[in-house]
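Kindly go through the entry underneath: sequence plus fold tokens. Please state briefly how this chain folds according to its tokens.
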Amino acid sequence: MKVVLQRVKEASVVVGGDVVGRINRGFCLLVGVEKGDQEEDVRFLAKKIVELRIFPDENGKMNLSVGEISGGILAISQFTLAGSVKKGRRPSFDKAEHPKRAEELFGAFVAHLREHGMRVETGIFAAMMDVCIVNDGPVTFVLESHKASAKPRS
């Protein structure tokens, strides 16, 4: 599972001309589910994201989590994160999870974020979406569950 995390001043997602999700200060998460991802990947990344201390404290040091600033999360499913452009000129999506399973794991990811007390907005799975953000910093991190966890993957 891959997540591109952007610290934002605000973010929204529009589907068919309608705003379906909007947050003020917090995180915009682009979430890619890969073949072989499991519930443990979902739990690991949800906990990691909620606990990351990347908001400035009163001294300007990255020392506060999204919960500590009462921030929100906009989570967007993005299967293209599982794509590869290593060969040729057209991306390969061989590593992307089947849409039904990807939707289940994305839903579980959002549920775990909410279990940690986060207010989470989302787009619409598999829809064409316009994602609008005001990046704060800019501060952007890429998180990968299988590279960050201690357990080897098969």
User: Anything to note?
Assistant: The domain at 2-148 is CATH 3.50.80.10 (D-tyrosyl-trna(Tyr) Deacylase; Chain: A;). The helical segments are 39-51, 99-115, 145-148. The longest strand covers residues 130-144. The chain has a mean pLDDT of 94.
